[in-house]
Amino acid sequence: MLQLRPNCEHCDKDLPADSTEAMICTYECTFCKSCVEQVLKNVCPNCGGGFCQRPVRPLTERRKGLSRLHQPASDVRILTKYSETQLRAFADEFCRVLPEKR
Hints:
Helices cover 17% and strands 8% of the residues. It has helices at residues 33-38, 84-94, and strands at residues 22-24, 30-32, 52-53.
């Protein structure tokens, strides 16, 4: 199940479960839309893949047992181990290759 991490791994911006600013890669690395566009250039610094908008888990239970009340968002904050210089260099190396071709 998707973790719904609570923050951007680069700038540490809060990304609550209902945020439309949260972007994830296939491994659930989580960054804010601003960092994905301006720093990472749609290149995940961990796996090299691309990003898409993280889905919003419903607050209201519409099917039994399925809602944020039953599967709450994670409260574990994760920060990248890479410096901004390293992030930008990695992004620059791969940003011209489409995510599906990386």
